[in-house]
Amino acid sequence: VSNEAKKRGSDQCGTLGAGNHFLEVQVVEEIFDPEAARIMGLEPGTICVMIHSGSRGLGYQVCDDALQEMRRCPEKYHIQLPDRQLACAPINSPEGQRYLAGMRAAANYAWANRQLLMWQTREAFSEFFGKPWEELGMDLVYDVAHNIAKMEKHIVDGKEKLVCVHRKGATRAFPPGHPDVPERYRAIGQPVIIPGDMGRESWVLVGQPASMEKTFGTTCHGAGRVLSRNAAIQVARGRQIDKELAAKGIIARAHSRAGLAEEHSDAYKDVSIVVDIVDRAGLAKKVARLRPVGVVKG
């Protein structure tokens, strides 16, 4: 990890960041798998806080540093790429190993960042309600990365192989019984968190066996955009997104109006349709639907 990356991350730990990062207060509206929900501590009416943030400027710089180095790798290792904007390096090359080490450091930073955000949230709730967070039941349900590469064992062409699984905007969905699922959740499968947008619901699911056969134990992390950020701002021109959300019973706070404009509901696919497809495909099974009541954008 370069000094520049460390410098960029030094004062950002415990912050959301811009873009689609958020902290959202939600209420559980519907349960689809009572046993899985019970193990997670979810029931109708439960108040939850969902946090989406990552490795901030440190992770960005780690990636940028690696890209600068990897631009020379295709020629060095005689790799033919279909696009000049692409860059890569063999996993076992010095460049590949340096990137993986930097990426893992960035992932560790991201986990620490979310832990600090969770701590700040607990402190705020505790101060407001005048009770310790433990009495408020603010236990962590799950924390998972959605931009990461991991070495995993998978069946490929009928044989178990150690492969590098890149998940970008995607998350693990390991099934019940998988050894890499934490013991608390091993009987039900890995918790899968699929957030919606500011004006629509988010979902909690659990991984299913078909994910191992179809997608290397993976499912989507969100609904996906239908508008670029610039296009979303154009569509929102003249609208008051915060008031539109308030009319739905959702309080929104953002660093800027542009932040709300580029992340409004019209910029995203309908998450309920996406989750239905994930469920029907057998990648993950629905557990709970959560409705937003308060949104904080970085």
Structure description:
By secondary structure, the protein is α+β, with helices and mostly antiparallel strands. It has 2 domains: 1-17 and 53-136; 21-51 and 142-298, tRNA-splicing ligase RtcB (Alpha-Beta Complex). The protein has helices at residues 3-9, 34-40, 56-70, 73-76, 94-129, 133-136, 210-214, 229-235, 241-247, 257-261, 271-280, and strands spanning 22-31, 47-52, 147-156, 159-168, 170-172, 191-194, 202-207, 218-220, 251-254, 284-297. The strands form 3 sheets. Strands 1, 2, 6, 7, 9 and 10 form a 6-stranded mixed β-sheet that branches. A two-stranded antiparallel sheet has the order 3-4. The protein has a two-stranded antiparallel sheet with strand order 5-8. The longest helix is centred in the middle third of the chain and has 36 residues, at 94-129. The relative contact order is 0.16. The model has no long low-confidence stretch (mean pLDDT 95).
Task: For the structure shown, list the relevant keywords.
23% strand; 2 domains; 298 residues; two-stranded antiparallel sheet; 6-stranded mixed beta sheet; alpha+beta; tRNA-splicing ligase RtcB
Summarize the structure.
This protein is α+β, with helices and mostly antiparallel strands. It has eleven helices and ten strands.
